[in-house]
Amino acid sequence: MATTLEKFNKNIVGSRSKVIDYIPTISSSGDFSIVNDIQAILVSWNNILLTQTRTYVANPEYGSDLYKYVFEPADDDTANGIIDEIQYRLMLYDDRALVTNIEISYMSDGHGFIADIDLKYKGETSLLTVEINSQNMLKFES
Question: Is 134 in contact with 106 (CB distance < 8 Å)?
């Protein structure tokens, strides 16, 4: 008979062939939902890219420096810098999937950008869209 820990490891944590994570949600069944495979990777990548470096106490290097590009000129040099930062941080912290393409588009007010990241995991493809602007990256409380 399996112990509670063995049941947890087998049924909840998953196995080497299946990626599982939890995300907070508002639902009638509880506060967390299970996401599998490519969805778990999308959640992880989103967290990496939207977390500013030096804000995570346990690992100050965790996250990305995408906020530094919010007020940069909307040109090819900035787009290449953004793409390099995305690729570097994703491969550093979560290399379970392959980045196949990154497209950068700038906001009309000039204070941010949108990164569309195409990825592939075990033959399945998906798109992660990350919006970086002055509202979500430069919040200061007084």
Answer: no
Nearest to 42 by CA among 114, 94, 105, 104: 94
Query: What range defines the domain where residue 75 resides?
Result: 38-137
- Digitized pLDDT (tens) for each residue of the chain, 142 residues in all: 567 666 655 555 555 566 666 666 666 666 776 677 788 889 889 989 999 999 888 889 999 999 999 989 999 999 999 999 999 999 999 998 999 999 999 998 878 999 999 999 989 999 999 999 888 765 443 3
Task: Identify the sign of the CA torsion 87, 93, 95, 97.
Answer: negative
- Asked if residue 23 belongs to a domain, the reply is no
Matching residue, tokens 């980045």: 99
91 falls within a domain: yes
55: domain CATH number is 3.10.450.40
Q: Please name the residue that has the structure tokens 């990777």.
A: 41
Entry pTM: 0.77
